[in-house]
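Predict the 3D structure for this chain.
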Amino acid sequence: DNSGGSYHVFSWGRHALAQDNIEVVRFSGRRIISAATSGWHALFVDSEGIVFAGGANEKGQCAIINDQNNDFVQGVRRVEQVPVGVKICFVATGLDFSAAVTMSGQVLTWGGNDLGQLGTNKNLMSSNRPSLVRGVLSRVQISDI
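Done. Predicted structure below.
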């Protein structure tokens, strides 16, 4: 919905991102170009390539670090962990992990990694910092996930 330059994201059901109202968040002056949800967390990308996240964050799937409750991000907040200068064009979510495609076609992943779903070949159970996927994906340009 675009009402006078404000873009709105609506949700219904479990209300993971909102308490009592259906409107989840208003993106004033920001045009959302990609959105994804796992049912427990959600990611959004604006036209400037900035990622926003909210919802469950137990394994770092929102890549939000704060000094309060790191297990759940109320509302939607900007993901500050994306490397400086990297612009995102698409996002995807799994049950407890997240992925993003950069404007240059690279893939970043973060969140739960207990089954190797991040594809980073690291011996981490989880990561709240987006990491570049190397190997086969580093040799091709990804356009959507």
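The chain has no helices and eleven strands.
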